[in-house]
Amino acid sequence: MANAPGEIEALIALMARLPGLGPRSARRAVLHLLRKRSVVMEPLAQALVSVAATARDCRICGNISDHEVCPICAADKRATGVLCVVEDVSDLWAMERAGGFSGRYHVLGGTLSALDSIGPEALRIPHLVQRIGDEAITEVILALNSTVDGQTTAHYIAEALAPTGVQVSALAQGVPMGGELDYLDDGTISAALAARRRL
Amino acid sequence: MANAPGEIEALIALMARLPGLGPRSARRAVLHLLRKRSVVMEPLAQALVSVAATARDCRICGNISDHEVCPICAADKRATGVLCVVEDVSDLWAMERAGGFSGRYHVLGGTLSALDSIGPEALRIPHLVQRIGDEAITEVILALNSTVDGQTTAHYIAEALAPTGVQVSALAQGVPMGGELDYLDDGTISAALAARRRL
Ligand SMILES: [Zn+2]
Ligand SMILES: [Zn+2]
């Protein structure tokens, strides 16, 4: 990796930390940027600066947008009363791409993990319980990954929500074992949503 | 790709234009940035802004650095008298990684191509001819890709340099046919350099 000038080398090292880019492809990406400085590099730099300055976690659902309350939580057209619980913002995006869900979300930001000492508070589960009452929620759809951690978390949430009397459902078994939402095609997600089962 | 907020969507579209990143991996990369805003996104944004503002083509050799004259052209330690001609800055970096060359460079910025109407002027070949006299060059090493266009360009340059009496050599046939320098391991490049043949 050596022999590019220091500042460019530092940029390559930063790019290499992105998922999907290793040291070699990061170098090629930076070279591409250097060749297209005004057409590609400057717009990308400005977009990054702008998004880094404005992006924030929605204080209601945990989605990322450039507002304190994200467009989904702020949209009058979205149904109130139904919450879809997802592990990550990427899963929220995948649900939205798939279409078929018109309610609101709750982004956990991960799954329960004794190993990494991630407990219910870190996942905003108490906040979820509070939303059930505050927003008069009648159904919670657990759209968690079909992994061991995802299903453990789903069961924990179902139990935590039991006292509220809210109806809790989960995506149908259309989601393949070990599958992660973000890698599924839209049709599979839609079908699993339509056939969701009550827990 | 829809459903991320507009500004984030625009960032994903810009990232997707980088070599090695498609729309899907660009989205994952941007999500990674959004999750690590202060640790990864802000440093990357600042590095891009900084490099975009300072990067320029060396007025002597065509290398890219943050100076009008690049560190290689400015280094007293680098041998004068021997020029290595490469197609692209990525090839210059590959030569430097391989080691074994202590002279200076001339970056063409491409190869001759009737199809794309890239002629000798666009490749700074007249400037190369001028450097032979100005810098008292005794040998020119053509380190061009072993592609049809690369070899056509090598022959054109050898003929253009003939009147100057400078010795012209090319990397040895250690470079596989169709091979591009940037994809070769360092040992192959070093061996080809050591066994370069006079044209
Ligand atoms: Zn929200
Ligand atoms: Zn230079």
Automatic annotation (TrEMBL), chains A, B:
Belongs to the RecR family. A zinc finger (C4-type) spans 58-73. NCBIfam families: recR. One of its GO terms (biological process) is DNA repair. One of its GO terms (molecular function) is DNA binding. Residues 81-176 form the Toprim domain. InterPro entries: DNA_Rcmb_RecR, Rcmb_RecR, Rcmb_RecR_Znf, TOPRIM_dom, TOPRIM_RecR. This is Recombination protein RecR. The gene is recR. It comes from Pararhodobacter oceanensis. The keyword Metal-binding applies. Keywords: DNA damage, DNA recombination, DNA repair, Metal-binding, Zinc, Zinc-finger.
